[in-house]
């Protein structure tokens, strides 16, 4: 347990999309969660000295570094936040844990089950705290949905549908990025968006997927790269059927070529006495249907902005909506609180391993022609 009165030095490794989102969280967490340990935005890390310097100035960092290894022996760094491409997650996080740092890793935990298992073991052996950045667990509507499922408000869940659709690769001339190379990304949309979808299923149901069958597809096999046309070595879209030990059957669809869909995570849970529906593009709303009295049965839309709702009390008056960025600030607050109190934290590295096992089973199923495959969960 860390002295809750001591200011903690933070370093974020990576300054692009996720690095900016996490930086925004570290900058704001003390203002909205004054009860957690205070932080000092010490160092932003990136390989390009000029670009990371510019990002640090924009985002409020005290200093920069071009080599993440320089953080390991520094007494002014207590937390290392890993926002690199997936192929570096395991290396950076393992070294940080060994150095006694608290570690936050952006999802997915790593690019393979073996790396995830190594990280789980390292976290268990360390006296430091670790957290996996599945930020959608901090969407108030989804946290409320978990409570309603746990409280039996929709009965026993039997079916689920989860889709996560984007369209930023629908243009075949969209250029290559590290996300389209297997050696850096591990997988394509399956690891990128599918990891969120699988984790939400685990989070909402309170149990893991034990079997999966699936299909992957790369619709655009080549894209323009910096040195000419380059082969895309990951999936553009994926479909799967998932099974849990209790008998829940879930359909999963993820795509980065779904024209017209920008960031559409849609979740539907169907129970014996009701259902829940959520759409990330309307993230302050949760649709609840409860059966029973035929006169009042039907869907009710809950605006999840009341102070009694999860995570909302830290923010604005009732009815004032929250956004995507707020989830990262709430995530940082949960992590800081756990560092100070030794309270349980989520998502854990074990949660990341459980999700990665499902993704690996879907890939294995695809390679075998879609056969049902055990996940190992």
UniProtKB/TrEMBL annotation:
Q: Which UniProt keywords apply?
A: NAD, Oxidoreductase
The answer to whether keyword Ligase applies is no
Which residues constitute the signal peptide according to the record?
none
Domain GFO/IDH/MocA-like oxidoreductase positions: 144-277
SUPFAM superfamilies per the UniProt record, alphabetical: Glyceraldehyde-3-phosphate dehydrogenase-like, C-terminal domain, NAD(P)-binding Rossmann-fold domains
Domain (Gfo/Idh/MocA-like oxidoreductase N-terminal) spans 9-129
- Domain of life (superkingdom): Bacteria
**Species:** Ornithinimicrobium faecis
Question: Is Secreted a UniProt keyword of this protein?
Answer: no
Q: What is this protein called?
A: Gfo/Idh/MocA family oxidoreductase
Gene3D superfamilies linked to this entry? Dihydrodipicolinate Reductase, domain 2, NAD(P)-binding Rossmann-like Domain
